[in-house]
Amino acid sequence: MTKTAGTATETVETDAGTARITWHGAKKARLVLAVSHGAGGGIEARDLVALAEVLPTHGVAVARVEQPWRVAGKKLAPAPKTLDAGWRGIWPALAKSGLPVISGGRSAGARVACRTATELGAHAVLALGFPLHPPGKPEKSRAEELLGAGVPTLVVQGGNDPFGKPEEFPDGAFELVEIPYGDHGFAVPKRADISQDEAVSLITDAVVEWTGSLG
Where is each KANL3/Tex30 alpha/beta hydrolase-like domain found (predicted)? Predict the structure, then answer.
């Protein structure tokens, strides 16, 4: 499925319920990028949609993953351990092609990717809008999750993200790309020096370059 161009949808049973994968195939795919959503949104997030449109043209198949709670129509995300269980459950479907899998996600999905990367044998981690701390509570840091990923990691962070601005991140074995003016969803204000389309292009350009550098 990942070796031919096109889109397909697949449901997967996990210990947390039924998950759903929307595949965006690539001709002669060399990597699979699996990305999940955050606690407050779905796979229609602007960054996930853009990556699914752009990366397949660069040899990276994209799998946009909906956690079971979203598939079931629930409005609130469950506890982290349940999110991790859902991600573990879909992993065999992501890895069945035999291609290296980049584990990724936005916000809460990024945390899941970091927490499970080593255990699942992820090739790398893509963290979009990593929620370093709850808004206004920098003392409640989640840096350990990011630093503990154990594989090559790229963080793409909005310059005005209330969950953690780029300058708040600790030093560590990860790359960080700032999207100027961007909030937690990479939305930029109209007064910004860059347009919304330019901000999204910065995201996709950074991920294309990074995936191209992965062995």
Answer: 29-210
What is the Cα–Cα distance from 124 to 8, expressed in whole angstroms?
A: 24
Beta carbons of 43 and 64 less than 8 angstroms apart: yes
Domains of the chain: 7-213 (3.40.50.1820)
Query: Contact at 8 Å (CB) between 30 and 82?
Result: no
Overall pTM surpassing 0.85 (yes/no): yes
Long-range contacts of 43-46 (CB under 8 A, 24+ apart): 45/106, 45/185, 46/185, 46/186, 46/187, 46/196, 46/200
Q: What is the DSSP string of 3-32?
A: TSSEEEEEEEEETTEEEEEEEEE-TT--EE
pLDDT of residue 124 exceeding 50: yes
What average pLDDT does the chain have? Answer: 95
Please check whether residue 94 is in contact with residue 63, taking contact to mean a CB–CB distance below 8 angstroms: yes
**DSSP letter assigned to residue 134:** -
Q: Looking up tokens 């970091």, which residue turns up?
A: 114
Per this entry, what is the length of the chain? Answer: 215
Rounded Cα gap, residues 47 and 75, in angstroms: 21
